[in-house]
């Protein structure tokens, strides 16, 4: 077991005073058998505000912040201290009927998994299928894990990672054409490829603990999960080409990759230049 401290600071600097509308925060990691939160502290400016916690449709912990005053600056900081227990990524057994692809999910699970098999970009399915054909992932039977591992490693090794400041994700076809993208673009491509093959998959946003993140000025991370009969949702990180493990800290899961930003909200103010956004993430071992 290791203890980690996660500091996440988001700052918007406006040209003048504005009125802040309610903001939605997805900053609390998802607790489970391998993650236990010791404490979470929010530091928000303007100081006059109210915070209420909810669970969204995917069981993510969601904070909604309502402001009683405006100003020229919005600062949202969080500090989480958690216990992360060791995870052996390959220590799982898939049900016999799903060891080899293709397979069918049981009828009692299909209705719940159906949303995670629907493509976000259905018009690009043909492009995705041709790419999967080139990787020899659509022909005949093969081990399910081998298929997913090959797809995961291919994205990590054959695409160029870039840091994109623009909001949202790239459509998979754009990532394929440019052979580059951010972690959220890689995750989206992986997810849509899995759904093209009929495998239920979902988007995960969170943090990763690496030596570079110890120094600060890091960013949030994104990866994918695939539902495998037996072990359930298993994480694949196409940025690193590996199964997720003890260095991955999930915060939110979703069917659509653009629905779980860490901070989301709006403001009312005069026309002018866009606010200046700065984000800093630091994940350190205690």
UniProtKB/TrEMBL annotation:
Transglutaminase-like domain span: 175-240
Source taxon at top rank: Bacteria
One Pfam family hit: Transglut_core
InterPro entries noted in UniProt: Bac_transglu_N (IPR013589), Papain-like_cys_pep_sf (IPR038765), Transglutaminase-like (IPR002931)
Protein name as it appears in the record: Transglutaminase domain protein
Species of origin: Candidatus Contendobacter odensis Run_B_J11
Organism classification: Bacteria, Pseudomonadati, Pseudomonadota, Gammaproteobacteria, Candidatus Competibacteraceae
């Amino acid at each position: 077991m290791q203890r980690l401290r996660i500091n996440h600071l988001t700052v918007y600097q406006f040209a003048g005073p504005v009125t802040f509308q309610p903001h939605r925060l997805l900053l609390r990691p998802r607790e489970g058998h391998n993650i236990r939160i010791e404490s979470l502290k929010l530091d928000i400016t303007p100081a006059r505000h109210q915070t209420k916690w909810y669970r969204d449709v995917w069981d993510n912990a969601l904070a909604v912040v309502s402001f009683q005053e405006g100003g020229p600056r919005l600062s949202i900081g969080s500090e989480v201290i958690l216990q992360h227990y060791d995870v052996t990524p390959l220590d799982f057994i898939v049900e016999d009927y799903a060891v080899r692809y293709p397979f069918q999910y049981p009828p009692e699970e299909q209705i719940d998994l159906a949303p995670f098999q629907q493509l976000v970009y259905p018009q690009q399915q043909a492009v995705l299928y041709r790419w999967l054909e080139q990787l020899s992932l659509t022909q005949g039977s093969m081990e399910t894990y081998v298929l997913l591992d090959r797809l995961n490693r291919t994205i990590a090794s054959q695409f160029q990672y870039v840091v994109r400041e623009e909001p949202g994700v790239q459509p998979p076809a754009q990532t394929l054409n440019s052979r580059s993208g951010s972690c959220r673009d890689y995750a989206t491509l992986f997810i849509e490829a899995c759904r093209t093959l009929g495998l239920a998959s979902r988007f995960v946003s969170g943090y990763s603990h690496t030596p570079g993140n110890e120094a600060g000025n890091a960013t949030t991370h994104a990866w994918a999960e695939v539902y495998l009969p037996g072990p359930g949702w298993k994480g694949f990180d196409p940025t690193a080409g590996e199964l997720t493990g003890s260095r991955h800290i999930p915060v939110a899961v979703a069917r659509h990759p653009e629905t779980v930003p860490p901070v989301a909200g709006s403001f009312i103010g005069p026309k002018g230049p866009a606010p200046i956004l700065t984000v800093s993430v630091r994940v350190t071992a205690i």
